[in-house]
Design goal:
The structure is a single chain. This protein has a domain at about 1-100: Leucine-rich Repeat Variant (Alpha Horseshoe), CATH 1.25.10.90. About 70% of the residues lie in helices and about 0% in strands. It is built from 16 helices and no strands.
Amino acid sequence: MTLHDQIFEALQFLSNPEKKEFLPYFFKTGKGEYAEGDKFIGVVVPDSRKLVKEFWQKAELHDVQEILKSEFHEMRLVALLILVNKFEKSKDKTEQKSLVDFYLKNTKYINNWDLVDLSCYKLLGRYCFENQKDDVLRKLSNSENMWEKRIAIVATMHHIKKGKIFDLTKELVLNNLNHPHDLMHKANGWLLREIGNKDEEVLLDFLKIHYQNMPRTTLRYAIEKLEEDLRQDFLKGRI
């Protein structure tokens, strides 16, 4: 039995009927929605992570490729988490680069917000930060594909957490500030909030210049942790 089949069998065993029914609605798989046609087995992320612990060392990249091509969302998540595990455990720069190259060649399968958010900054973000490859993220930010744009901005989480370097995040937020989709508004606001968690003054300086041109969702996410009176000042345009 292939590794793909072993993981698929294990996921079916872990399937929760209620989750199987709920997840397609939660992840917007209906006609015309952002994940139209995606299929779910009905497995929660903690259970998927258990499988990753069991299988990641056995998986070669050709196995990961087969798993990642699956029509089932949880299979793709397991494949991406295996990649993250391999990257985090590796001390070999050549191997790390091969994992990043694989990730970048397969972004068409990273096609929902959770698949992006649970993989990109721990792998691609860290790699770009440690190897001065931020132009990789700039290129993704300029992509026509929304998920690649989201990969770019969320990947800067590593820069914020580890390097306390905020300029790239601010640059990429502005690059897609008025993107038409709410999922980009949320991602941009989330990463701005993360800047504020590290240095509130940096966030405030940025907001004072740009908040009146932001989508409302981005602003709400960005100011979520601010003191209430200050939040209201931003929301009501009194800054």
